[in-house]
Design goal:
By secondary structure, the protein is an alpha+beta fold. It has helices at about 5-15, 20-35, 50-65, 70-75, 115-120, 165-170, 190-195, 230-240, 275-280, 285-300, 315-330, 350-360, 365-375, 385-405, 430-435, 440-445, 475-490; strands at about 45, 85, 125-130, 150, 155-160, 175-180, 195-200, 220-225, 270-275, 305-310, 410-415, 450-455, 465-470. The strands form 3 sheets. It has an 8-stranded mixed sheet, with helices on both faces. A 3-stranded mixed sheet has the order 1-3-2, with helices on both faces. A two-stranded antiparallel ribbon has the order 4-5. The longest helix has 20 residues, at about 385-405.
């Protein structure tokens, strides 16, 4: 497969490769990988209708080539013939949707999510569904009922989570770009671990209709790719209001995404680094060094960097987990064996059916979060803990928005460490939760942030290290332009693994 969307489009237009060939190659890689000693386990399945859709795209391209109207065709369908990977919690009509859970085993989506419909309208081909932590609850994709996804850089390490399968598919060059979802860092974290670019857009820019909910006030579809342009092109096709999602919003300046230019006006760029992130315990020295190198790059371009004090960030992890787990407990109450998914009915009545179905269907991490969420929402608290979490969140939103009245960008690491080894943290939930310490403030503030592959950590077998650029709401174009400037100077960071 070709590395970037732009290169692949040029190859498709020139007849050097066909969409069907790209789909077949991915399917062959998927089948061969399943029999390996250390299977990557990025894809759970290749969609059965992917090849037919690719062949239909090839027919369109051939007819336009014969008519001399290829440019006009790609103006209407800029992603025509390009296969992409889909996370297992985003509905794709006629295909299985399990959220990495036994409780949805065999469930088939009756409709497609808005983001899938819009990508298909732009000509893209849904290739298959990717592995994830069960119901998107995790930071390593080890909590999937289908087994862990391995990191393609080194298969002894995790790929990150919860969108680890989507990240590994791109990093291993099994897909041109992929969709993931974020509640507290689940796109940026695996992008960092796998050495690729990953964008968490402003809340509402991408419709959530057709996406299985975890924490509704935090969830957002995200995009991963080899380059910033590989994120900008799908974002351009998917963004905007949706009549099925009342929280959706238009993206100002989305026209700049179609032909993304590298940012040049660094002399006017003011960058904030929160003091709280500099004082964080647990920051790996290798990650700290990459962080310093990233700061020096901005300074060499003429940007001004200042340390700012945002004490409210110290409460971000606590606020995030109170909100996310409360909403998760509510959202997952519908999975009861009656309305959705598998049913375990031993003929003992409704209460036993409900208990047996959920006990069998949910994994330990999902159960843990449901129990904590229900405890927070229990009568003895009268919802006061959730309300307190929301009030802290409101203050985070207010103070971060005020910060952007002075600064253009917040710069910080994506994660305090590089990827860790499989099994290293799976039995230590608190340690796993702290993987999100740099990412959750973005979701709480509802701002966009992009992970850029920024270096390697010598202490962890030279695994990738990511940095994140966060901006004010609806600044996706600017963030991706800055990321494009970074990619121009450090293209080696985003080169995928050849499998």
């Amino acid at each position: 497969m070709y590395y970037t969307i732009k290169e692949t489009v040029e190859a498709l237009k020139a007849g050097k490769v066909s969409s069907a060939e790209l789909v077949k190659k991915s399917a062959e890689t998927f089948e061969a990988d399943k029999s390996g000693q250390k299977p990557l386990n990025a894809f759970l399945e290749i969609y059965s209708d992917a090849l037919a859709k690719a062949e239909a795209a090839d027919k369109e391209i051939a007819e336009a080539r014969a008519a001399g109207s290829l440019d006009e065709l790609y103006e209407k369908k800029p992603l025509l013939g390009l296969p992409f990977a889909n996370k297992d919690n985003i509905s794709c009509r006629g295909n299985r949707l399990t959220c990495g859970s036994k409780i949805l085993d065999g469930y088939v989506a009756p409709y497609s999510a808005t983001v899938i419909n819009r990508l298909e309208a732009a000509g893209a081909i849904p290739l298959g569904r990717c592995n994830q932590d069960e119901f998107a609850m995790g930071s390593s994709t080890e909590y999937s009922s289908y087994g862990a996804t391995r990191n393609p850089i080194n298969r002894d390490y995790v790929s990150g989570g919860s969108s680890g399968g989507s990240a590994a598919a791109v990093a291993a060059n099994q897909a041109l770009f992929s969709l993931g979802t974020e509640t507290g860092g689940s796109v940026r974290l695996p992008a960092s671990y796998c050495g690729i670019y990953g964008l968490k857009p402003t809340y509402g820019v991408l419709s959530r209709w057709g996406v299985v909910a975890y924490g509704s006030s935090l969830d957002q579809v995200g995009i991963m790719g080899h380059t910033p342009q590989d994120i900008a092109a799908p974002l351009s096709a998917m963004c905007g209001t949706d009549m099925y999602d009342d929280t959706s919003a238009d993206l100002p300046g989305s026209g700049e995404l179609k032909d993304l230019k590298a940012y040049t006006d660094f002399a006017s760029l003011k960058i904030a680094i929160p003091k709280q992130f500099l004082e964080t315990k647990g920051l790996d020295p290798d990650v700290g060094k990459v962080f310093e190198d990233t700061k020096k790059w901005f300074e060499s371009k003429g940007a001004k960097i200042e340390v700012v004090d945002l004490p409210v960030l110290e409460a971000s992890i606590a606020s995030y987990y109170v909100i996310a787990l409360s909403e998760a407990a509510s959202n997952l109450s519908r999975f009861d064996g009656i309305r959705y998914g598998n049913r375990i009915d031993n003929g003992k009545g409704y209460d036993e059916l409900y208990k047996d179905t959920r006990s069998e269907g949910f994994g330990p991490e999902v159960k843990r979060r449901i129990i904590i969420g229900n405890y927070v929402l229990s009568e003895q608290f009268s919802g006061s803990t959730y309300k307190k979490g929301m009030s802290v969140r409101a203050r985070i939103q207010k103070e971060v928005a005020a910060l952007f009245n002075t600064y253009d960008l917040i710069l910080c690491p994506t994660c305090p460490t590089a990827a860790f080894k499989l099994g290293q943290k799976v039995d230590d939930p608190l340690e796993m939760y702290l993987s999100d310490m740099y990412t959750v403030f973005v979701n709480l503030a509802r701002i966009p942030s992009v992970n850029v592959p920024a270096g390697r950590a010598a202490g962890t077998d030279n695994m990738p290290v990511g940095m994140q650029f966060a901006g004010p709401m609806f600044s996706e174009s600017k963030l991706l332009q800055i990321a494009a400037a970074w990619e121009n100077d450090y293209p080696q960071c985003g080169i995928p693994v050849k499998e």
